[in-house]
Amino acid sequence: MAHSAPQPHATPPELIRNFCIIAHIDHGKSTLADRMLQETGVVEQRLMRAQYLDRMDIERERGITIKSQAVRLPWAVVDEDGRETAHILNMIDTPGHVDFTYEVSRSLAACEGAVLLVDAAQGIEAQTLANLYLAMENDLAIIPVLNKIDLPAAQPEKYAEELAGLIGCAPEDVMRVSGKTGEGVIELLDTIVRTLPAPTGNADAPARAMIFDSVYDTYRGVVTYVRVIDGNLTPREKIAMMSTKATHELLEIGVISPDPVPSKGLGIGEVGYLITGVKDVRQSRVGDTVTTATKPATEALGGYKDPRPMVFSGLYPIDGSDYPVLRDALDRLKLNDAALVYEPETSAALGFGFRVGFLGMLHLEIVRERLEREHDLDLISTLPNVVYEVQLDDGTQVEVTNPSEFPGGKIASVTEPVVRATILAPSDFIGTIMELCQSRRGTLRGMDYLSPERVEMRYTLPLAEIVFDFFDMLKSRTKGYASLDYEPDGEQEADLVKVDILLQGDTVDAFSSIVHRDKAYPYGVMMAGKLKDLIPRQQFEVPIQAAIGARVIARETIRAIRKDVLAKCYGGDISRKRKLLEKQKEGKKRMKMVGSVEVPQEAFIAALSQDGGGEKAKK
Ligand SMILES: Nc1nc2c(ncn2[C@@H]2O[C@H](COP(=O)(O)OP(=O)(O)OP(=O)(O)O)[C@@H](O)[C@H]2O)c(=O)[nH]1
């Protein structure tokens, strides 16, 4: 078998359907995907485990999908004359969190159609809309489906109407399934074949395949997932990445069903994986076009974007001697994560560490958790911040990813990133949502009623105001009923200032923050108050100040105390005295000196951990 000549592809494009399932979080995408694996016989019943496709441990624990995967499902449909035609369905799983919108958009671009899945007990939510819009931008055919119809609380009639109104079809055309019981899943698979368009492409043109995912595998190096648009790819040929012009030898090519199976090639419309032996996912970027080196295509497929970190935070080992371990761990993680960027940074307060860029808060939490868990590190992270562009009076432009580097000179303007946010909620909450968005410097762009009691609100909001704790606030103010989705929408100028926190006149770099001028005072008061409680008394009085430049906006004072550990020891037990002194010395090791003030490391951890880490991992 291995010796026969490679064939361009096994499946003619007219027998292929490429689709994805798009849904709001928890509407049951993974459960339905599992059920499809089962119904198509790809995974045997006895081997089935929940969320078969989510392979990373963290994904399974958190019940979310971070990396997309593609699975090939054989499915035969029987026509009116009783003739059976075997088809190949490629199901491309998409990540479900705003941090990974770009990856979602590339996964969608690899499909001709989408199953739009909506929980029959919940109805349309913000991510349903956001994903639907992305699918429409990619010209996908949409199959509307209500899931969880087995639930007693399901209201299929009501939500079929809502969904039909949204995409402009008849309520009867909305399919009804249960990923749990399997009801309706066979009909859905048939509908995918019957209604989604088959892929088209030019078989004779130079090969073009789009990368929609790439993952690092310890044993095999980078595994790149592609969808072939034109031409074909065969093993052992040289391929080129169009964005970097780098060439690699194609060591293996194959399909996932549900484990990787090598094939003799991939042709038009086919979805599969490539292995070239490269060790770094940066050499195989999502959105890039793969072509052959011998007969390269001249034009790359559209839509490629470099991953751009949106949130930065300083990561420092609690034990300073772990710095090399942290560096190696980041180097290792980078192989698997093209969006991760970092550079060494030193903080007077925290020592040696790294300034790390993330796609968003979930990405930050995942990276931090992996560093701590897989590399046994204890880390302090500084308050996360977004990226600011500062224009100085002399015309120079500075990109600020660390608040302590905010320039001190004459500033002409500061710009911050903004997002376009979609909030869906019961209409009773319109007032409270408007209030919240206003307090976060939001601008209302539009509002639509999806039904008399459900409203969609569209806002422009500064990223810095939404990325940290906004979702929690929104949830608590709407009794959990609101859903949120957002996407980057450029930059805006804003009246932003840097607030420094000073201990006895010395700035503590780790506590500097860039905030809107109106919020500078509350931030200063909050930080000064918090530090007053966290820092133990010293032998002298310590003023804590919050300042914008040279202007102090808030102040607290830690009163002096003479700490005499020996006072407790009456009698002349010298060894006991020595022991106590030793103990005090131990304690001092974990103290950081800020100027002449001793600050216990715990104070930094406590002061930094209470804000900022707010957004829950799951949305
Ligand atoms: N009763 C019922 N529960 C379901 C059904 N489908 C999914 N669930 C449950 O709904 C919850 C969410 O399902 P998932 O499949 O993890 O949802 P998901 O959309 O893949 O979630 P993410 O991957 O986190 O986006 C789980 O507790 C499932 O057991 C269904 O048809 N009926």
Automatic annotation (TrEMBL):
It is a peripheral membrane protein. Pfam families: EFG_C (PF00679), GTP_EFTU (PF00009), GTP_EFTU_D2 (PF03144), LepA_C (PF06421). This is Elongation factor 4. Transmembrane segments: none annotated. HAMAP family: LepA. Belongs to the TRAFAC class translation factor GTPase superfamily. Classic translation factor GTPase family. LepA subfamily. It catalyses: GTP + H2O = GDP + phosphate + H(+). NCBIfam families: lepA (TIGR01393), small_GTP (TIGR00231). GO terms for molecular function: hydrolase activity; translation elongation factor activity. Signal peptide: none annotated. Required for accurate and efficient protein synthesis under certain stress conditions. May act as a fidelity factor of the translation reaction, by catalyzing a one-codon backward translocation of tRNAs on improperly translocated ribosomes. Back-translocation proceeds from a post-translocation (POST) complex to a pre-translocation (PRE) complex, thus giving elongation factor G a second chance to translocate the tRNAs correctly. Binds to ribosomes in a GTP-dependent manner. Keywords: Cell membrane, Elongation factor, GTP-binding, Hydrolase, Membrane, Nucleotide-binding, Protein biosynthesis. Residues 14-200 form the Tr-type G domain. It is found in: Cell membrane. GTP binds at D26, H27, G28, K29, S30, T31, N147, K148, I149, D150. It is an enzyme of class 3 (hydrolase). Its EC number is 3.6.5.n1.
